[in-house]
Amino acid sequence: MNLDPLRWYKFYATVKHGDQKYGFLPYTTHLAAVENVLRRFDVADLDLLGAAWLHDVCEDTGTKVKEVEELFGEETASIVSAVTNEKGENRKIRAALTYPKIRANKKSVILKLADRIANVENGGSLVIMYKKEYEDFKRALYTKDENEEMWNCLDRLLL
User: Fold this and answer.
1) Alpha-carbon torsion 61, 66, 67, 73, what sign?
2) In this structure, is residue 22 part of a structural domain?
3) Taking the chain (159 residues) in consecutive chunks of 10 residues, what is each chunk's mean pLDDT?
4) What pTM, to 2 d.p., does this model score?
5) Residue 1 has what pLDDT?
6) Is 1 within a domain?
7) If you placed Cys at 51, which of 29, 74, 79, 125 could pair as Cys (CB 3.0 to 4.6 Å)?
């Protein structure tokens, strides 16, 4: 029997996000889209693919990183922790506090790129906001010769 190695991540995320919506769709629609973006860029790392399903669980449901670590391991928890927004009075301050955490964890940069690509490809009002923020986003997270295909994709979508 060939079971999906991500089944527990998916189950946990589905339960934790409960009735939350992504637009009019179940929130898991977004989580699946992030995983699909990673797979399009040939990511096969289980911790990273699992983190695609868990990347918003601490921020949106009040789940503690410690719980993610106990259930899914230190590596997955470190990725999730890095992409979880820090507290701040506005989006710009939260980004300034969060981006250094993301940059310090290479897998978190990949996940954040996949999350941003998935959100932009979905369309809607977020695209306008992401276009305005893109220069700061790229300045904070871009490292030459790393994740070039993903950055090129995001450039095409936002520039």
Assistant:
1) positive
2) yes
3) 88 98 97 98 98 98 97 98 97 97 98 98 93 97 96 97
4) 0.96
5) 62
6) no
7) 79
Domain that holds residue 55: 7-158
* Largest Cα–Cα separation, the chain: 50
Q: What angle do CA 147, 150, 151 make, to 5 degrees?
A: 85
CATH code, domain with 88:
1.10.3210.10
Q: What is the dihedral of CA 42, 34, 152, 122, to 10 degrees?
A: 140
Please tell me the distance from the alpha carbon of residue 154 to that of residue 104, in angstroms, as a whole number: 20
CA–CA distances in Å: residue 23 to residues 9, 28, 113: 22, 11, 20
pLDDT attached to residue 125: 86
**Count: domains in the chain:** 1
Residue 53: how many other CB atoms lie within 10 Å:
26
Question: What is the pLDDT, as a whole number, of residue 124?
Answer: 87
Q: Where are the alpha helices (DSSP H) in 6-158?
A: 7-17, 28-40, 46-54, 57-61, 65-72, 74-83, 91-103, 106-122, 126-141, 148-158
Tokens describing residue 115: 């999350």
